[in-house]
Amino acid sequence: MNNTIYQYSLPLGNGQEQPLDEYQNQVLLIVNTASKCGFTPQYKGLQALYEKFNERGFSVLAFPCDQFGHQEPGSDDEIAQFCSMNYDTSFPIFKKIDVNGDDAAPLYEHLKKAAPGLLGSKAIKWNFTKFLVNRDGQVVKRYAPTTKPEDIEKDIDNLL
């Protein structure tokens, strides 16, 4: 279990602790998000993936982050309202976190180590970097912020 994401637990936007082992046997797409980013419309594509594959054991886990251009300045409540009102999101949105630096969430340290970026870089470069996790809790792929959710559909379908 140590090489999986299941060892981590993080608070949802409402403050309720969410152990990731509750997602065992599901395929996950873990994304660091922001409300005021050029990629913010990807929320629509993420929701579409969630609706298409959720009944087959798939979920999107969104982790708002304000480390890139101060593009997620809102409170957790404001973020939840924004996502709900603008994109009708129904997948879990967690409490705002750091994904880089000394205060980076341990989950993100794990993700970055398991699936480094270009040329082996570990740092998250921008909002909407995505990590695909298989049913065993192992990170199988990292996608750039520019990769649209619909372009990941085939990879998700293959894991399901």
UniProtKB/TrEMBL annotation:
Taxonomic lineage: Bacteria, Pseudomonadati, Pseudomonadota, Gammaproteobacteria, Alteromonadales
Name of the protein described by the UniProt record: Glutathione peroxidase
Keyword Cytoplasm tagged: no
SUPFAM superfamilies xref list: Thioredoxin-like
Domain of life: Bacteria
Molecular functions (GO terms): peroxidase activity
Family matches, as InterPro entries: Glutathione_peroxidase, GPX_AS, Thioredoxin-like_sf
Pfam family, one: GSHPx
Family note: Belongs to the glutathione peroxidase family.
Keywords: Oxidoreductase, Peroxidase
Organism: Fluctibacter corallii
